[in-house]
Design brief:
29% helix, 5-stranded mixed β-sheet, 198 residues, alpha/beta, 29% strand, 9 strands
């Protein structure tokens, strides 16, 4: 229930409510007028916390403080969810060296910033019959970025594309380059974002 959906004080329009007092005590089912009076006497708010219950459950509390603490908890929960962003570079088989250098430079920067990089080589037409060309390109890119990355997913052929996923190296550890025909298991949590298209 988002904070904008809470009904407070006079906005609660039901004849009776199940009331939780300011100290967490259950005061049972009471008319709405009595619940509002109890909240006013305590100099607090009457907040509907379970609108779908029969009758709805309301609590006497400091609504402003409640919202502040709820927002703080949600913010801390979001911080705890570490999300590793995955960037993508797209190439064609035997992309010229000049064009590829721009792509690998971007990949190097992203890896140094702690992001993963998906390297995708897309085939057109009959190019798909020569996957070894794309594999060689991926091996060269992996070797070029060996000082800042490790191979998380070995080159795999998926449809009309061959992909490889690089992760940032920990402590500058070198990684092995992929071998011909090696296959890895795709990571279902990898999501390509901010794609740098060819």
């Amino acid at each position: 229930m988002s904070t904008t959906n809470y009904r407070v004080n006079e906005a609660i329009r039901v004849p009776e409510v199940r009331l939780i007092g300011p100290n967490g005590e259950n005061l049972g089912v009471v008319p709405i007028e009595k619940a509002l009076r109890i909240a006013r006497e305590a100099e607090l708010d009457l907040v509907e916390v379970a609108p779908t219950a029969n009758p709805p459950v309301c609590r006497v509390m400091d609504f402003g403080k409640f919202l502040y603490e709820k927002t703080k908890k949600e913010r801390e929960a979001r911080k705890a969810q570490t999300k590793i962003e995955v960037k993508e570079i797209r190439l064609r088989p035997k992309t010229n060296e000049h064009h590829r250098s721009f792509k690998t430079r971007d990949a190097r920067r992203w890896l140094q910033e702690g992001m993963k990089v998906r390297v995708t080589i897309r085939f057109r037409g009959r190019e798909i019959t020569y996957p070894e060309i794309a594999l060689e390109d991926l091996k060269e890119i992996a070797a070029e970025l060996a000082d800042v990355s490790v191979i998380e997913q070995m080159p795999t052929l998926e449809g009309k594309a061959m992909t490889m996923v690089l992760a940032p190296a920990k402590g500058g550890k070198k990684k092995a380059t992929p071998t011909s025909g090696a296959e890895g298991t795709p990571n279902p949590q990898v999501e390509a974002k901010d794609t740098a298209s060819a």
